[in-house]
Here is the input.
Amino acid sequence: MKNLKTRAISAAIFAVVMLFGLLYNALSFKILFTIIAIGAIHELINICIGKEEKNSGTRKIFYTLLACIPLLLVWSESFDLSKCIYLLMLCISVVFIAELYMQSVYPFQNVGVITLSVFYVALPIVGLILLSNKDGNFSNHLAVGLLFLTWSNDTGAYFAGSKFGKNKFFPRISPNKTWEGTIGGGLLCIITAIIFSRLFTEYCIIDWIVFGLIVSVFGSLGDLVESMLKRSFDIKDSGNIMPGHGGFLDRFDAFIFILPFVCFYFKFFH
Amino acid sequence: MKNLKTRAISAAIFAVVMLFGLLYNALSFKILFTIIAIGAIHELINICIGKEEKNSGTRKIFYTLLACIPLLLVWSESFDLSKCIYLLMLCISVVFIAELYMQSVYPFQNVGVITLSVFYVALPIVGLILLSNKDGNFSNHLAVGLLFLTWSNDTGAYFAGSKFGKNKFFPRISPNKTWEGTIGGGLLCIITAIIFSRLFTEYCIIDWIVFGLIVSVFGSLGDLVESMLKRSFDIKDSGNIMPGHGGFLDRFDAFIFILPFVCFYFKFFH
Here is the structure.
């Protein structure tokens, strides 16, 4: 009972922080997503770097900072992705040199975790921040829409799964997910997308249906990918930001995973 | 004796192929560096992906192709690094999904090896190809200069080390390297840089001295980084392109490692 109360209180605080960050202004929006990305990257690095490495605590902070370089640069008005990549390339080489002197046990795997975090978390969030700041005009509509689509996908899957769930979707990784739940989530997600197309008209109905399809297909897969991460390292939660709700990666796994598909759609089909 | 003959013949073939690729025309240049990059990436992936993974042979080819995406795109006239990064981001997400279905033992480490290859080999070589094709005009001068600087650094280090070598430079990783050799290599490298500044005058003397310093400091460290890779996976050579000379990574370790520093210099100080 006490556990349920703690969960409810922390969920309420989470909702308030999210809504404030999303809706207040461009600065709160950037701060919110920078914090989410730093948190998720730190958790990923924390999971992947083994205890065999010396000074693993300091190392993890240092690696997190490096993987966050694109997120720190995107705060600048004159952000240039290709310059950012050149800077990252240089930093990665410097880390290799540092690995030499730190006598690492798994030097290449350590650097691999940094580059992985860049592609799995940092660049997708940078892509979202850039899409939300077109030609100097800030709009939170895309992020708000995508977050609500992700939540409606989860909610639909939960209710449809509880009511009709029979056929397991991916039992090896996520034993509770069913095909019925996944389809129910997808349906609610598409309905939500159609509603959003009436609210936020700077994206047309086709855009919104594409977002809905991306979220319903890749959101569910993003969930599974994060579960695969936890299973392969034999842990239960990625972190513990809020009692009973896991970590940043647990909360934003589906959302972060859909962003590369959304960015790709804008970059190549818009 | 037979071994020495094999080594000499393969070294001669190597020199001819390198000179032809470098000097013939823009196409032979691009083909040469694309082959070097594909070879080095394949070796890196081959070293890092364990035998525990199912279908590890097919997997390695597939991962190599993915890490080579920037190299394939750079062949296009309208190459755009930021578009390339968005495409890579999407591909990385698709690989995560593939890892789910391939029942990988180390899914995140596998994807990490791909992203690592992108930063350690693919993007540096792409940077060199871009620097050699400024505004549609091809010039091999930078690549020729940097390769000769790398070789003169090695040669100087070899002779100075054999003659005066006493104090070990980095015994844990490379027991034969000495401080005397490293300094000798650096000196010959700077002298070669000054000679090149007279030959290839589109870069000024300061540029050439910067290249010389980069090669003498980071070339030697790049050697050590590749030795660290081999030591951490307990192998002797990265591959076997030519009998007695090791693989692509063994041959081009120092050269690939200096490229991020050279690209950074051009992007931020030129």
About this structure: Chain B is about 75% helix and 5% strand. The mean pLDDT of chain B is 91. The longest strand of chain B covers residues 174-178.
